[in-house]
Amino acid sequence: MKNLLKRMDNVRLLLEKEAFPGMAVPGLIYADHYIETMLEQDSALEQVAHVACLPGIVGYSYAMPDIHWGYGFPIGGVAAFDVNEGIISPGGVGYDISCGVRLLSSYIKLADIKPVLDALTTALFSAVPSGVGSSSAIRLSLKDLDDVLRKGARWAVKEGMGMQDDLDRTEEGGCLDGALCEFVSSRAKERGKNQLGTLGSGNHFLEIQVVDEIFDKAAASQMNLESGSITVMIHCGSRGLGHQVCDDYLKVMRRAMAKYKIDVPDRQLCCAPIQSEEGQQYIGSMKAAANFAMANRQIIGSVVRDVFAQFFPGKPLFPVYDVSHNMAHIEKHIWEGRKREVCVHRKGATRAFEGQPVLIPGSMGTASYVLVGTKKAEMESFASTCHGAGRVLSRNEAVKRTRGQNLVREMADRGVTVKADSFRTLGEEMPEAYKDISAVVEVVHQAQLSLKVAKLKPVAVIKG
DNA sequence: ATGTGC
């Protein structure tokens, strides 16, 4: 399929409709020549073509430069579906519903943090539970959990964990209206009940960083970012609760496919019409899981603040922004001069409305970026941009290659303190398992889907 | 991603 790509310019490739039978729209892949060489054999591109076959798709089946193979839809994929004729698909959101990033900033300087770095990192590691299956000290009744699912980060602030400014600097104010907790299974609730305030595992992390480079002074100052100052990045999602919601609704959608006579090229793309009862129940449950994820990041941010306050009294941590990388939203867009209401699936992709902060976490030991959304993204990609470096090695392949390596020491040699819950996860997350994040960011910057504001370098990282 | 796996 790779030789069916037509280069449009330095950062855009077109996958024409002729590439795969049934494509209703072409594919649009954001890639320069380096990213093009990184496109996996074919599997992720095939997934771009498959998504283009789904009912009601508008515009293109998009792939951001961090694209790699995922469940049904590629990770780094974006697709908008007409609200009346289109579908909603759990595979287009991903297993970790509303996995995302929260960034806090400070006026603490790198030199001030160096003498206490080990103690601070250890304190953060013990204050924020991490790892697969980790649980927190926050024990909720099912009634309280329903409140979290309805109110999101607002619930945490109401309980004394954070402030109004945090909500003002969170996507959707930290709470999605229309969450339907009555359609979230009791199994999902049971799994999530004791996991609020936990980091999880995989690519999730809690990182102390320093602002290494500023590209846009005005935007950086609006976001409370200044060169040489410390930031804290929190990357996590909806834990077992979101995972179970995805699992539950994949089953629901498989049944709905027969009921609504929807035909798709891959079973993993199972979906239902947006306006169907199954579609509406998934959307309500997905929103509930997203509220859980936003509450989770709000709580972790609050715990991080408490720990920092012990080391740096009187030097607060300010909210920069909190944004999701795995979500579907009903949004109004103008496409080919026509007002359209669409359901935009962003799976491993970030919303990028004009002026909105975009947070791009790097892989372990590498830089992260802050960008800002653009009018161009609103016009061209349903206000979407990339979400990270994107894998080039599978988890298994990465672990194989780390045999005999001491990743903690290698990170220390790079000047990054690492504390981890699991050696296996460290191997999966080795830097070589990912593309060069700077190259990914350069593509979306050149395509003007979002513009570079600041580069953040890791100082200490906590991995689940 | 995940009370990790056919």
Q: Describe it for me?
A:
- Helices cover 34% and strands 27% of the residues.
- The protein is an alpha+beta fold.
- The chain has one domain: tRNA-splicing ligase RtcB (Alpha-Beta Complex), CATH 3.90.1860.10.
- Strands 7, 8, 9, 11, 15, 16, 18 and 19 form an eight-stranded mixed β-sheet that branches. Strands 1-2-3-4-5-13-12 form a seven-stranded mixed β-sheet, sandwiched between helices. It has a two-stranded antiparallel sheet with strand order 6-10.
- Strand 4 and strand 5 form a beta hairpin.
- The radius of gyration is 21 Å and the shape is globular.
- The mean pLDDT is 96.
- This is tRNA-splicing ligase RtcB.
- It holds the Pfam family RtcB.
What is the element layout, followed by pairings?
Blueprint: E1 5-9, E2 12-15, E3 27-30, H1 33-38, H2 43-51, E4 57-68, E5 75-82, E6 87-88, E7 100-109, H3 110-113, H4 117-127, H5 142-151, H6 153-158, H7 164-168, H8 186-192, E8 205-214, H9 217-222, E9 229-236, H10 239-259, E10 272-273, H11 277-311, E11 318-324, E12 326-335, E13 338-347, E14 350-351, E15 357-360, E16 368-373, H12 375-380, E17 384-385, H13 395-401, H14 407-413, E18 417-420, H15 423-428, H16 437-446, E19 450-463
Helix pairs in contact: 4-11, 5-11, 8-10, 10-11
The protein binds one DNA strand of 6 nucleotides through helix 10.
